[in-house]
Protein: Multidrug MFS transporter
Amino acid sequence: MATPRPFPLEPTPIHVPDEVLDDLRARLALTRSPLDEGNEDWSYGVPAGYLRELVAHWRDGYDWRKAEAAINAHEHYRVSVAGVPVHFLREPGRGPRPVPLILTHGWPWTFWHWSKVIRPLADPAAYGGDPADAFDVIVPSLPGFGFPGPLTGFPDVNFWKVADLWHTLMTETLGYEKYAAGGCDIGGIVSSQLGHKYADELYGIHIGSGLPLDFFTGPRAWDFARNRPLTDDQPADVRARVVELDHRSASHLAVHTLDGATLAHGLSDSPAGLLAWLLERWNAWSDNGGDLESVFTKDDLLTHATIYWVNNSIATSMRYYANANRYPWTPAHDRTPVVQAPVGLTFMTYENPPGIHTTDERVRAFKSGPQAGWFNHVNVNAHDHGGHFIPWENPDAWVNDLRRTFHGRRP
Structure:
């Protein structure tokens, strides 16, 4: 039986106080825009014109209460895990033997980036699937990323410490004897750590990247290009792709790893500044073909931004990067592969490494490359549609790939 006892907690719906929303609108009304000539194409960063438009909608048109009602259509819980306040969403599985599944987001995600896959995973029959594939879906907010509020007493928070919290949450707090895990971005390495340290208590993991657990280890972890130097003899397409990927992530990694607290002073005081910092990544990292709102509507963007703002969580969300380097990952055992739990992976060609162009090439490159050796990989897939925010951009691919990972691995 997947759930050994009735669910042990009482739901606590999300509710943002009116005064917090009033303060947000007052700050938005006082926004001062920078001079930003010649930047309509985003080549210097987020254009002031587009941000002004979005800020105006946030102030006068966006309805948080409508978003809050949609969020509260799911069960929400708040609990202390090893002294750390944790919020999570739960969608009970509907099937003969639902498998507990914890899904972990990344940055600049919120737990709500999983919203398109939660019900298909929990109730596959309602979406044309097999009820035998049902999961009891648990979607926490990374501590310090959103609800239940600002994270205090955990200044050294990082991905492998969160993995310990998640294991305690699933096994001790919620009483699951065995569970599955999935994640993207930071959530991918949280899930990989679970599959490394707690493999015997997991059915497996499914992740949206193949980052090794020591990705943030070393003196230049902030340098995204450290393993892909530019050389004169590189093919033009490889060189161009290296530069493109650096442009997407160099400032992000460098600032978050080296100087996040300084930036956070501005972003915690100005909702427009916070929105701009998040927005640039949502635009650059999604497969939007030059039209951000083909992936995220204005209301979608503002729902995610509001979750960051009302919880004053930008500083602790960025802290994960510095702390992954400051408190580096160390192995829990010396067995190989490092991640011994069965691993499924979903890749998107939008994030292909240099020199890789097709889905088939992406799968082959992973299986023949050094990253594959980290994982007990049992199911590797790549897709043409979608970018960094896989379960939001291509939810069907994520759901189908994840189901295949755990097919035949259920109790």
